[in-house]
Each structure stands twice: as C-alpha cells, then as structure tokens.
Amino acid sequence: MRYSAYSIIKQALSGNRLWQPAWREPEPKPHYDVIIVGGGGHGLSTAYYLAKEFGITNVAVLEKGYIGSGNVGRNTTIIRSNYLLEGNNPFYELSLQLWEGLEQDFNYNAMVSQRGVMNLFHSDGQRDAYARRGNGMRMHGVDAELLDREQVRRMMPYLNFDHARFPILGGLYQPRGGTVRHDAVAWGYARGANQRGVDVIQHCEVTGIRRENGRVVGVETNRGFIGCGKLALAAAGNTTTVGRMADLDLPIETHVLQAFVSEGLKPAIDNVITYGAGHFYISQSDKGGLVFGAELDFYSSYAQRGNLQTVEHTLEEGVTMIPGLSRAKVLRAWGGVMDMSMDGSPIIDRTPIDNLYLNCGWCYGGFKATPASGFCFAHLLAKDEPHHVARFLRLDRFERGYMIDESGKGPQPNLH
Amino acid sequence: MASLITCPHCGTRPKEEFTIRGDAAPRRPGSADRDEAWYAYVYIRDNPKGRILEYWHHAGGCRRWLVVDRDNLTHEVFGVVDAADFQRTEAAE
Ligand SMILES: Cc1cc2nc3c(=O)[nH]c(=O)nc-3n(C[C@H](O)[C@H](O)[C@H](O)COP(=O)(O)OP(=O)(O)OC[C@H]3O[C@@H](n4cnc5c(N)ncnc54)[C@H](O)[C@@H]3O)c2cc1C
Ligand SMILES: [Zn+2]
C-alpha cells in the first residue's frame, strides 16, 4: 500500500480497519544471495538500497531482537554534515542529501526536520578551530555559518552567555542539519526493503559463521542454518562478537552511551545545540520532550544501561549551558552500546575473507550516516568496489597509517 | 554498578575520582619489534563481553595507576590492584 493523503482519508472513512502490516514476517529461506546481520538503521538501509538501486532482491536482514531495538531507536536523532576531514565530509554530506529526499523516496513520514545545528564555542582558540571546520565544509560545498555572540543570542536567548569559565563567544551553525524521528527511519527502510522483496527476519540471532575453503557459505542462527552468497555485517555494538565468528581482528571497542528525555514542554528550543565546553547536545522533540545526551560512560560496556555518574555529569553540563533546564524533569534515561573505532571514524569495507563485508565503527555518530552508509555498503556489496565517497573508510587504514581522526584524540576509543 | 571503586591505597571511593584509560590486556611490544606487533598493540582490541581488566587512574586521590577487574555486562567490580603489582605478576607469569 502506498501512503498518501488519499490513503489516510480512505482509511479514516473505513474506521482505520484496512491498514496492512508494513512488512511481512517471513520464515527464513534456505539460501539468499546476500544476508545482512543486524536489523538496525544501517542493515535495513543497506537492504533497501541493494534492492532499489542495485536490483539485488534475494536478500535477508537477520535481526536478533525486533526492528528498532538497537541504537537506531536509542539515539538522540541528530543529523548534520559538519565534518572537517576529507575522508568524512563528502560521505556525511551525501547522507544529508539523501535525508533531504528520503521521505518521498521511501514513502514514509520520518519527520526529517532541518532545524539547524549550532555548535557553540567558548574561547578564541575554539573559534579558530570552528572557523577552520566551517571553511572546510564550505570548500566541500556544504552550508556553514560562523555566528558571533549577538547573532547566537538573538536565536537562543536562554543560553548562559556570561558563564565565568566558559562564556559563549559564538557558534558554528549548519542550517541544513537537524533531527529525524529515529524509529520511523527503521520502519520506513524495513517497509521499503520488504516491498521490493527483501525478507526482514526478526528474532533471528546469528550464532556462527560457516566457512568452507576460506569462503563464507552461510550463518548458523537460532532458527537453523541459512546459506548465502555474500555476508554483510552491520551489528553496531555487537560487531566484535559477530566478527569473532569469522576470526576477524577488529579495531573496535564497545562502549555505552546514555540519552535522556524530559517531560513534554511548550516549544522552547528551536534548533539542535551542542555545548563546546563539554559534549552536551540538546533538541526538543515534536512531542515537546527535551532530548539530550553527553559523553560515553568512558569504560567498555555491553550493558545498554549506564552509570549514575554520567547522568549527573550530563545534567550538570546541561544546566551550565541552559540554566532554565534545572526546572525540567527528566522522564527517562537509557543506554545503547556502540562500536567505538580507534580513530572515531567508521569502516565500510571488504574483509580478509572474500565474500564477507563489514560495516562498523559508527561510534556515536552513526544515525546521521544511516542513508549514506546503506547506500555505500550496498554499492560495495553489489559492485565489489567502494562508492567514491566511502573510499577512505577502509579497514586497513590503521595498519597503513591513514587514520581519519576528526577530533585528533589518537587511538583512544573512549575519547572519540 | 562500579559506582564505588576500592583503591588499594585510598580505600573505597566514588567513580568520579577516577579516569579510565581502557583495556589492560594489550602487551607493549619491544621497540625493535615488527610493525605488525605494534599495529596489534595500538589498534586491535579483543573487546570481550564479560570479565575484563582495565587501567584506571586515581586522578582525584593517590594519582596511582590501577588495574580494575570488572564485568562489562553487569558492571560488577571484582578487584582493584596497583598497576605496578599487576605488571610484576604479569612479568612473573
Ligand atoms: C544514546 C545514543 C545517542 C546517539 N545519538 C546520535 C545522534 O544524535 N546522531 C547520530 O548520528 N548518531 C547517534 N547515535 C549513534 C547511532 O545511533 C548509531 O551509530 C547507529 O544507530 C548504529 O547503526 P545501526 O542503526 O545499524 O545500529 P543498531 O540499531 O544497534 O543495529 C545493530 C543491530 O544488530 C543486531 N545484532 C547484533 N548482533 C546480532 C546477531 N548476532 N544476530 C542478529 N542481529 C544482531 C542488534 O540487535 C541491532 O538491532 C547515538 C547512539 C546512542 C546509543
Ligand atoms: Zn587511590
């Protein structure tokens, strides 16, 4: 069924009794051309673009939980392409361009909202660094504006401009950045892939990777063996666990990141704002809840829930940036486990095993990458060569000395 | 929950006093070792799910480096030793 104003009116007139499930619940077939492990945003978008752009439809997405139960449904929904480095910027800009047309493309309301992303700066040195990043963006044809303190104040009068230690001197603003309703992204891609013949199989956990003569022949799952021509891993925080099934040595560590949402409030925060003196970021959802988060818990964790110390730290940062936040009540907090890479940038590449492909290392910025990641991973799977904007995102870049270290922190996964 | 860490020098202290370096498993190769050994040491991580050893620094206390024995799924802490003692035991093994 195609969703449209007409379909909504028709359903309304028939008491909303005729809606169909958005995707089938198929039994696994014995063999697929491509199996994708992980039904998060990246696995589902890969399946969607494989079918839509490259005509490969004999595809299964295997998800151990339900669609949207991983990080794709846990993130703070921020999208942007304000990266400095050449290995990153064109890739994230492709993603932003795909977001801009996504809802028409997959016929699903993902509430893409280009409300603008503001990165605040607090010192002369930080202003210089942001100016450099903004110039880098503009040289790539990406929108960026360096705003002074008064320009920021006109947009966001509620910020703490005169903090003694971290005064706000201005901000780097990307008007095309914004937020997207995250679970609708998972659902929209799942529906679009399903419509084109992809089997989205939930509650199907991959427990082993079967190899013969150095090639993958299929996967062991809790629902039996499933054969495949090519195997694609998109398991985010569980990348190491799945990769180990094929003896991959990976530059990945799993860490927990928390997020928070307040009670619903009247519209107050129009944009996405990030604090430059810490790592706090905030936006307001269309339901009115303030959605925010900050840093990792700093230690490796597979727990999908975090430590109280980080809760306290996040709220301290938030109240330092927006004193009025102290009046809001936090409704919920949760955590997601992410695949932190050793340089903070992702990997979309082949592996030492010929028909095994890898998509990982998204750290806590992988939601915005969902469309481009799926597009480029599908390209790699279909053509066996990288999409040109993803050509730097190689697995062997660490060994060759071509790190893409956006924040200049070195091989320290808990700091990226 | 790893909210409290028992430092061998300072006693039981809140997690806020510590900064975390990370995995204590990788062994530093010799300076003349091959590039592959250095690559593995600097970049490759076992990243196990369950019990792990980690370097923590008691920045807000004795300022010693410690090794924390911890479960990264339950966040339970099993023990904390001084990093120098940890390395002596490792070297003896
Ligand atoms: C709190 C938080 C805030 C974030 N905020 C942002 C943000 O504002 N902007 C941004 O760009 N990014 C953000 N991120 C990062 C982003 O959410 C992730 O990088 C991205 O979602 C990861 O890709 P994914 O959607 O495919 O992951 P997931 O949704 O985690 O998908 C991986 C899937 O693999 C499945 N899986 C694992 N092992 C197996 C197995 N053995 N068999 C079958 N299935 C398996 C898992 O169940 C999971 O569903 C945030 C993340 C978190 C946790
Ligand atoms: Zn101490």
UniProtKB/TrEMBL annotation, chain A:
Leader sequence segment: none
Extract the Pfam families matched here: DAO
Q: What is this protein called?
A: Sarcosine oxidase subunit beta
Give the family per the record: Belongs to the SoxB family.
Catalyses which reaction? sarcosine + (6S)-5,6,7,8-tetrahydrofolate + O2 = (6R)-5,10-methylene-5,6,7,8-tetrahydrofolate + glycine + H2O2; sarcosine + O2 + H2O = formaldehyde + glycine + H2O2
Q: What is its EC number?
A: 1.5.3.24
* UniProt GO MF annotations: nucleotide binding; sarcosine oxidase activity
Has UniProt tagged this entry with the keyword Nucleotide-binding?
yes
Q: Does the keyword Lipid metabolism apply?
A: no
Domain of life, per UniProt, equals Bacteria
Spell out the subcellular localization from the entry: Cytoplasm
An example GO BP is: tetrahydrofolate metabolic process
Q: Which InterPro entries does the record match to this protein?
A: FAD-dep_OxRdtase, FAD/NAD-bd_sf, Rhodanese-like_dom, SoxB
Which source organism?
Neorhizobium lilium
Cofactor entry: FAD; FMN
Q: One Gene Ontology cellular component annotation? A: cytoplasm
The UniProt keywords, alphabetically, are:
Cytoplasm, FAD, Flavoprotein, FMN, Nucleotide-binding, Oxidoreductase
Specify the Rhodanese domain's residue ranges.
Answer: 34-78
From TrEMBL, chain B:
| UniProt protein name | Sarcosine oxidase subunit delta
One Pfam family linked to the record: SoxD
- Biological process GO terms, please? tetrahydrofolate metabolic process
Against Gene3D superfamilies, the record matches this protein to:
Folate-binding superfamily
The scientific name of the source species is Neorhizobium lilium
Highest taxon of the lineage? Bacteria
Can you name one GO molecular function term for this protein?
sarcosine oxidase activity
